[in-house]
Design a protein that fits this description.
elongated; alpha+beta; three-stranded antiparallel beta sheet; about 60% helix; Chitinase A, domain 3; four-stranded antiparallel beta sheet
């Protein structure tokens, strides 16, 4: 009987010790309004980053520092997601089974996955099909929330699309500028260039203004074609901002003052803008959504009660 008593006492002490350890391990790391985030939840969310980066850290101190860095980064993401989920709940945003089914079906089609292969993929991620459906529901809620508060204010202009195209799609291609110019030298060149610029702003044709002011005969009709590297740096910077048909402000080049007109822009080996316009527009719209989302999250954080205990 005494032996049984001591065995029971030993078990109880072991149980209490384990419970105390569990409390230490699984503690609260953040409070977001009336909800908490625990260390176990944080480590579960950070697991993919642990698997990716921790094997590289051989030194124990380096490994511990890396864990802290990953936790801080992931915790901020979890706080953002918690705020968005709370806002979706406050606004009573609903998601139907049909919306979830459609989302999953599109995902399977995009990745060419059968039902069996899709479930195998989820299992490899440690997810059941029902758990994944819950994740999708939360994701759709956030999309609806963001669309309702942000997307209606997003405008991507044709100028932004063209500018992005020049910077990212023409880079490395054989770009050729066809230019015309008003080139003014001698006394009072700057004042004459300003006068010529004012006439251009009033709608006087470029050729007519060039014939009146330019020191180089025929420059208003055309200077020829130039590759970017053939132009002086300050000229290249000015011309790169022009659209065909546009002219620049007066620019000092050496001892002269010049006003450039981009007659045409030629490229060899570049994808036509018409083919990539939808892709560029979507990319620019997503960038603006991300910027506004961060701004909105900042506003939500200012109104919320957030305490980080990590």
């Amino acid at each position: 009987m005494k032996k049984l008593f001591f065995l029971g006492l030993a078990f109880l002490l072991f149980f209490l010790s384990s419970l105390a350890q569990a409390v230490v391990v699984d503690r609260i790391v953040a409070v977001v309004n009336d909800e908490v985030i625990t260390l176990s939840e944080l480590d579960e969310a950070a697991a993919p980053l642990y698997r990716k980066y921790l094997p590289r850290a051989k030194d124990p101190v380096e490994r511990e520092n890396l864990i802290r860095q990953i936790r801080r980064r992931v915790l901020q993401q979890m706080i953002d997601e918690k705020l968005l989920a709370q806002e979706a709940k406050r606004l009573e945003i609903k998601v139907s089974d049909q919306e979830i089914d459609s989302f999953i079906q599109r995902l399977k089609e995009q990745n060419h996955l059968s039902d069996e292969k899709f479930r195998e993929f989820l299992a490899a991620q440690g997810l059941s099909y029902e758990d994944y459906r819950k994740q999708v529901a939360e994701q759709i809620k956030r999309i609806k929330l963001i669309q309702g508060h942000i997307r209606e204010r997003i405008v991507v202009t044709p100028e932004e699309i063209k500018d992005y195209y020049r910077k990212h799609y023409l880079k490395g291609n054989n770009t050729v500028y066809e230019l015309a110019a008003i080139i003014i030298t001698g006394p009072e060149a700057e004042q004459k260039a300003k006068a010529a610029y004012e006439e251009l702003k009033k709608g006087v044709p470029f050729k007519e203004v060039a014939a009146k002011y330019s020191s180089l005969k025929g420059s208003g009709e055309g200077l020829g074609r130039f590759k970017p590297e053939e132009l002086a740096p300050q000229v290249r910077e000015v011309v790169a901002k022009l659209q065909p048909g546009q002219y620049s402000k007066p620019v000092k080049v050496g001892e002269s003052w010049q006003i450039f007109k981009l007659v045409a822009l030629k490229t060899e080996g570049a994808v036509p803008l018409a083919e990539v316009r939808p892709e560029i527009e979507n990319k620019l719209r997503q960038e603006k959504i991300d910027q506004l989302l961060q701004k909105w999250l900042k506003e939500l954080k200012q109104k919320a009660y957030i305490r980080v205990l990590l």
